[in-house]
Design brief:
Layout (H helix, E strand, L loop, with lengths): L1 H21 L2 E8 L5 E7 L5 H11 L6 E5 L2 E2 L15 E7 L19
Parallel strand pairs: 1-5
Antiparallel strand pairs: 1-2, 3-4, 3-5
Protein name: Ubiquitin-like domain-containing protein
InterPro entries: Rad60/SUMO-like_dom, Ubiquitin-like_dom, Ubiquitin-like_domsf
Pfam family, one: Rad60-SLD
Length: 116
């Protein structure tokens, strides 16, 4: 009886272990913040998210280097993985075009200043 109980317990562990190994992929939704489109990707948990970024760029027709990706308000780096970010199925990543600017000094020369 002891042996049978062990066997049953061992079988359960094997099933749980097998289930974990089958679940090596995660489904991720990428939400385009500019036009509200959503693209769904399935990626291995331990693959760098750079692969997803490049594929997304191809799908929307832009160089992925011009895009910024974030999850839970934090920017995603190319070398991060779904596993490292603890992404679960249907996690949503936001994609935006990189915003430039903010460095231009818009001062008015005295010759164009209009007094009121």
């Amino acid at each position: 009886m002891e042996k049978s109980s062990f066997s049953s317990s061992n079988s359960t562990l094997t099933t749980e272990s097998s289930h974990r190994s089958v679940n090596t992929h995660v489904k991720i939704r990428v939400h385009n913040g500019e036009d509200d489109r959503v693209f769904c990707f399935q990626i291995q948990r331990d693959v760098r998210l750079l692969k997803l970024m490049k594929k997304y760029g191809e799908r929307v027709g832009v160089d992925y280097n011009t895009l910024r990706f974030s999850y839970d308000g934090r920017r995603i780096k190319e070398d991060q993985t779904a596993e490292g970010l603890e992404l679960e199925d249907d996690a949503e990543i936001n994609a935006f075009s990189e915003q430039g600017g903010g460095g231009t000094n818009h001062t008015c020369p005295a010759s164009t200043l209009i007094s009121m």
